[in-house]
Amino acid sequence: MNNTREVDVVVIGAGQAGLAGAYHLRRTGFELERDFVVLDHAPAPGGAWQFRWPSLTYGKVHGMHALPGMELTDADPTRPSAEVIAEYFAAYERAFDLRVRRPADVKAVREGEGGRLLVETSDGTWSTRALINATGTWDRPFWPRYPGQETFQGRQLHTAQYPGPEEFAGLRVVVVGGGASGTQHLMELAPYAAATTWVTRRPPVFREGPFTEDVGRAAVALVEERVRQGLPPKSVVSVTGLPLNDAIRQAIADGVLDRQPMFDRITPDGVDWNDGRHVDADVILWATGFRAAIDHLSPLKLREPGGGIRVEGTRAVADPRVHLVGYGPSASTIGANRAGRAAVRDIRRLLAGEPVAV
User: Fold this and answer.
1) Which of 213, 222, 174, 166 is nearest to 192 (CA)?
2) How far is Cα 303 from Cα 326, in angstroms, rounded to an integer?
3) pLDDT for 69-128, tens place per residue?
4) Of 106, 149, 212, 337, which has fewest CB within 10 angstroms of its CB?
């Protein structure tokens, strides 16, 4: 245990949620390296954004909200979002002297001695009184399983591996998934692919009108209720529906967004439905979302029978030392900012021995 270092707070993850938490720790008097550390497994600043496909330009990004204390201004909407946001995050870390330790892979968080938590990483072990977990979802792409999947002779990939549309020129592509990524992929692929087919489990819901604060609050409340019950969180877009803008309308009119029900099996050369239909495919692109990357918390046994971690605000009900920021209702960029502030407020009370608000 000679290499175990002690701090009051460990922040895991340096995406939007982790940086927001670190900012509020700094702002309320915690000193970096003495009182808290920020660990990030990514090779460079930018959170999950640095891994996004080049054709996802900053102008196509939905709802990117500035980090607390520093606006993102004059960004070129035609540049890849991976570049724009990575540069912004890097500038943010410099501006607030947030010396993120990277790459640092967190392997496990387990019970330590004296009421402390042990955070075991590729960079040694940290002993901490409280934890801000801000690990997001990018590292846990969700791959559904369908009969015959292993027989498919073409290429299967997930949104997390999507390289951009040019690579699919002349190919027949089946896109699976009814979220924003699926529709973006289809609209990008249409000019390049020989054919595209869109399949989803449920009919997509397109939202008319502006995304108002009231709509946002109602959506977040529904996601929040799930995590309060200990159920795995759903994405906010699964509640809000897809915005019906001019590009979406045109894609519907052109037949690009012609949704088909989910196929029943995968064959070596495509996909089949029980009614006898078949579609030939060279590629199956799974735009099927992500799950929370929280396996490193397993030793703490925080999961409820429903499969999720029960959370009040950002605090794990089963362990008030653990705060999940960017989880469930705080998964949006503005939600992550607010959650970072709330987590630090609760942690200050916890460390001071004060009762934490329920």
Assistant:
1) 166
2) 17
3) 999 888 898 999 999 999 999 999 999 999 999 999 999 999 999 999 999 999 899 999
4) 212
Closest CA to 186 of 30, 66, 55: 55
pLDDT digits (tens, 9 = 90+) for 55-73: 888 887 765 788 999 998 8
- Report percent pLDDT > 70 for the chain: 90
Q: In angstroms, rounded to a whole number, what is the distance separating the alpha carbons of residues 296 and 120?
A: 9
According to the 3-state scheme, what is the secondary structure of the chain?
CCCCEEEEEEEECCCHHHHHHHHHHHHCCCCECCCEEEECCCCCCCHHHHHCCCCCEHHHCCCCCCCCCCCCCCCCCCCEHHHHHHHHHHHHHHHCCCCCECCCCEEEEEECCCCCEEEEECCEEEEEEEEEECCCCCCCECCCCCCCHHHCCCEEEEHHHCCCHHHHCCCEEEEECCCHHHHHHHHHHCCCCCEEEEEECCCCCEECCCCCHHHHHHHHHHHHHHHHCCCCCCCCHHHHCEECCHHHHHHHHCCCCCEEECCCEEECCEEECCCCCEEECCEEEECCCECCCCHHHHHHCCECCCCCECEECCEECCEEEEEECCCHHHCCHHHHHHHHHHHHHHHHHHHCCCCCCC
The pTM score is: 0.87
